[in-house]
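REQUEST FORM: STRUCTURE PREDICTION
Request ID: SP-0412
Submitted by: Lab K.M.
Chain count: 1
Length (residues): 117
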Amino acid sequence: MKKNIHPQNYRPVVFQDLNDNTTFVTRSTVDTEEKVTVDGVEYPLVKVHISSSSHPFFTGEERIVDVEGRVDKFKARREAAKKAQDARVAAKPKVRKSETKSGAQKLGTPQVKTAKK
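STATUS: Completed
RESULT:
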């Protein structure tokens, strides 16, 4: 086996889920500045937004975990698009029957001409 290729800082670390404050003690090489005491022992602390204790796949629950506001941004864009579409429909000019050639022709319907024999 090759020597000096494995990380030197492989140690026990606490991962804390920010959604439900569940903590896991496992081994990792992740660097962190924060520390936490669990069962009288001080460990490095890594905070995560989602873990197996809060992920919908593992919990069987459907809930939205949105830390960065992506869902709110999507809903705002969808609402703005709906308002813009409604404004375009309202601003579309109405065609009166007197303005069409035959009076019965509707906007977008092609006129069919028949040849006389």
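NOTES: The longest strand covers residues 41-48.
Reviewed by: T.R.
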